[in-house]
Amino acid sequence: MTPPPDTATTEPVNVAWRLASVVTRSATAGDPAILSLNATGGIAESWSATRLVDEAARIAAGLAALGIQPGHRVAVLVPPGPRFFALMHGLLHVGAVMVLIDPGMGIKGLSACLKQADPVAFIGSPKALLARKLFGWCPKVRWVLRVGGFFPGVRSITRLPAGPAPAYHDGGPAGILFTSGSTGPAKGALYTQANFLAQCDALGRMLDIRPGENDLSTFPLFGLYAPLLGMRAIIPRMDFTRPGSANPAYLLQAIRSHQVDNLFGSPALLNRLLTHPGVAAGGLQRLKRVVSAGAPVPAPLLRRLAPHLARTAQVYTPYGATEALPVACIGSADILETTSQLTAQGKGTCVGWPAPGATVRILALQDSPLDPANPPRVLSPGEVGEIAVAGDQVTRSYFNRPDMDARHKLTLEGRLFHRMGDLGYLDSLGRIWFLGRKSQRVHTAAGDLPADAIESVALEEPGVSRAGLVGVGPPPDQKPVLAIEVTAGADADKVLASVRARLKACPATRAVKTVIRHKAIPVDKRHNSKIQREALTTHYNRVMR
Predict the structure, then answer these.
(1) Terminal CA-CA length for the chain
(2) What's 141's DSSP letter?
(3) How far is CA 308 from the centre of its chain?
(4) Which residue ranges in the chain fall short of pLDDT 50?
(5) Which of 174, 187, 321, 541 could serve as a FRET partner for 200 with CA atoms 20 to 30 Å apart?
(6) Prediction pTM value
C-alpha cells in the first residue's frame, strides 16, 4: 500500500491523504471496506481499504502521467461502486476538481451543468459515454476515459499509463457539486478539500459514527466518507435517482444479510420500506441509526417508523444544502417527545441544534440584492427571518456564478456566511426551526404564509400522503391553495374535509380555505421527497385564474 507522506512537516489538507492515513493506522485495513451488491443482494465486488488506497494512488499516478493537473475540472459520470470511489480519491489525490452531477436531473439538466462546468476531461461509464456522443456533451475535452464495460476508442482507467504517485495536493478546489435545481437552475457549489474534510468530521461527530459499523447508503456520496470514518460501505443495486421506487424486500435483505448498522434513506424511501411486512417482522431491529434528509421528515412518518426500530435506535434528520452540509441535526426521540406538537400547530419543523463547527444566524428578510456595506440585521430568538450559516463545511462560492455569490454569500461578524434561502427562527434553547423556502412563501393580503409550516399541519391528518401550498394570483394578494395527495385506499372526501377542519382550528393556518385533491403531487428527482411547488404554482395559476 502507498503510505501517506508521514515525513512531511505538515499534514496536507487532502481527502485521499486522510484516507491513506486512516488505513495505515487501521488493524482491519485488509478486511472488506466497500461491498457492491448484485441484483439478488449478494456481493458482486468486495474491496479492502488497502486496495481502495492502492487503486486510488495508481489512478492518481496514471492521471498525472496523462497530464491532468491540480485545478483541472474532470466530469465524473460513473455509477457508485468500488471503482467510482477509487476514482474520486484518485482525483482528490492529484488535486483535480471533480464535477459531480445528479443524473436524476435528466438530459437537459445534465447538458446545462456540463456546459457550465466546462471540464477538460470526461470520465464515464459506457452508458454515459454513449450519451456524450448522442447529445454532444463536452466536445472540447482533452481526455475521455472509461470506467467498466467497453466503449470503442476510449481508454479504461484500468489501463492508465504507469508512473510515480504524485504528491498529495495540499488544499484548494476539489469538487463542483451541482444543486438539484428543484427551486431554480442548478448551480455548482465549489468545494475545497477542507470543505469535504470538515463535512466528514461533522457528520461523524454529529451522528456518533463508530469504526467497524456497516453503512447501507441509498445516497451514493455518503460512500465517500464511510471508509474515512472507519465504516464499511455497502452499495445496493438500485436506481439512485428514484429512491421512492426502491425494492423494500431487497433493502431489508441487505440490512439482514450484511448486518447493517447505519441506513441513509430519504423520506420517500422510508415510506417505501414501511410498505413491506418484513418491517413489522423485525427487519429494522438491528439498525443503530437511520439518517434521513433531502426534505423535511414528517412527524407521522417518524411515529410509524419508531415501533420497528430497536429501543436505543433513532432516526436523525440532518438539515443542510448542497452548499452547506450539515447545518443542524435532531433525533426522532426529541421530535416525537417535544417538537412535533408545535409542528402540528403550524410552528414549523425543528431541525435541531447547529452541527459541530456550524454557526447559525437568523437574518432579517430581504428579497432585494444584498448591499455588502449594509448586511441584513441579525434577529433575536423567536423572530422569523432567513437562516444563514458559517463554518468550515460551508462552501465559499459557486463555480463561475458571481451573481449567485452576491445573492447567497455575505460577510458578517468577520466571517463568510451562506444564506440558505430558508425561512426559520431560533428558539430559546438555540434550536433551529424551519418554516419553508423563502421564495415559496405565499404573499396574502393578511401576511405571508410559509409553505412547509402550513403543509406540516395537513400532514398530521391520516390519509394525507403529500401536501403542497401555493399562491394563486399576483402578490401581495395571492389566494392560498393547499393541494393534497390522498393515500391509496383512503376516502378522499373525508380526508379533505378533515384537513379543512384541522386548518380552521389552527390559528397559523386559518387563512388557508381552499383545499384541493391533487392526484400525484410532483417531487424532486434527487430524493423523491421535496415538493415541486413551482410546478404546482404554474398548474393552479393556469386552472384557477
Answers:
(1) 67
(2) -
(3) 25
(4) 6-8
(5) 187
(6) 0.96
